[in-house]
Design a protein that fits this description.
CATH superfamily of the largest domain: Isopropylmalate Dehydrogenase
Largest sheet: 11 strands, mixed
Shape: globular
Strand order of the largest sheet: 3-2-1-4-11-10-5-6-9-7-8
CATH class of the largest domain: Alpha Beta
Number of strands: 11
Strand content: 15-25%
Distance between the termini: 45 Å
Helix content: 40-55%
Length: 348
């Protein structure tokens, strides 16, 4: 599986990832299939499968994985998509999500991956792992396909209401992440707004722009929604409300385009014939924008690696989320953020 994040994972120490097997729309069967996909191409990892021990063992018995590559960690409860963050945090301390996060805190795993309830995962992760000093709130960050590469975007839903200082912190973390995984010396950072003019936007955005302009970040100014998919910036910063709406809108547009293309190629015998000739091009196009390649969002700002997979991820997409966890383990992203927060301190 390829991904925009292309740094090489270290093999000096076997990385261990805790997997919330009970999460996601497809649940245990899909996630264990994803584990098999990953282990088919990686022999230097160990995965802790957290969930219903009997069900996990039955699945492994019917289709074994390479010996010594997985361990089962029992969990008696499951965080559902209907559970509030408070319920998940206070009342489900034996859930697969909580135990997977605890394994990172205890040092038994270097990362955890879950496709479960986003609010619950954020609340549990923040409570168990705490935030890096200097960061008030974790942010959800992922890469989005763009012209000639990809764009890092955050926050994508963790923080609905943000202050200017929060947006500044997101920009700092996004810049550090882009510098680490892409090898970009000075990532270009843009602040998402309704226009590029200085007077545009609400008070928080304008105040954040002032902080960023006075920092040592490579801040390029306001960007609009169309700039997310161009080569204008490397990092796009926004609050979680705007980010989540933007992301879901993009997913909807992609599905609509795919639907209309299929309809047009089926509209007539001639269109079907043209479709046969165009199939290689369409396949290549589909691969470039395939959302499964970009599945796996980082919960940046925590003192540990936590990756959130899309709830509807299939085995290919979830395996990619595990790949991202392995990359962030190799880079030690939390330590990198902790040690480099002073890179972009505003001028006083």
């Amino acid at each position: 599986m390829t991904h925009g994040r292309s740094a090489q994972v270290s093999t000096l120490k076997t990385p261990v990832v805790a997997i919330d097997v009970m999460s996601g729309d497809g649940g245990l069967p899909v996630i264990i299939d994803a584990v098999r996909l990953l282990l088919n191409r990686r022999s230097d990892v160990h995965l802790l499968l957290v969930g219903d021990a009997d069900a996990i063992q039955a699945n492994l018995d019917s289709n074994p994985v390479p010996e010594g590559t997985v361990s089962i960690v029992p969990a008696a409860e499951v965080v559902t998509m209907e559970d509030s963050a408070a319920v998940a945090l206070r009342s489900k301390k034996k859930s697969s999500m909580r135990i997977a996060t605890n394994l990172v805190k205890e040092g038994r795993a270097s990362a955890c991956v879950s496709a479960g309830n986003t609010g619950a995962l954020m609340a549990i992760s923040k409570f168990v792992l705490k935030t890096v000093p200097g960061i008030d709130r974790p942010a959800i960050s992922t890469t989005i396909p763009a012209i000639d590469g990809h764009t890092h975007m955050l926050d994508l839903g963790a923080n609905i209401d943000c202050t200017a200082e929060h947006l500044y912190q997101f920009a700092t973390m996004g810049s550090i992440l882009a510098q680490a995984v892409d090898g970009t010396a000075a990532p270009r950072v843009g602040l998402l707004n309704i226009g590029s003019e200085d007077m545009k936007g609400n008070e928080q955005v304008r105040d954040a722009a002032q902080l960023l302009a006075e920092s040592q970040l490579n801040y390029t100014g306001f960007v609009e929604g169309t700039d997310i998919y161009t080569d204008r910036v490397d990092v796009v910063v926004c609050d979680g409300f705007v980010g989540n709406v933007s992301l879901k809108t993009s997913e909807g547009v992609a599905r609509m385009v795919s639907h209309y293309l299929k309809e047009e190629f089926k509209a007539s015998a001639w269109n079907k014939l043209v479709g046969l000739f165009a199939r290689p091009i369409l396949k290549a196009f589909g691969n470039r924008i395939d959302p499964r390649r970009y599945n796996g969002a980082s919960l940046l700002g925590l003192q540990g690696v936590v990756i959130k997979s899309h709830g509807g991820a299939d085995n290919v997409a979830f395996a990619n989320a595990i790949d991202i966890a392995l990359l962030e383990i190799a880079l030690d992203v939390p330590s990198m953020i902790r040690s480099r927060l002073d890179v972009a301190v505003p001028v006083t």
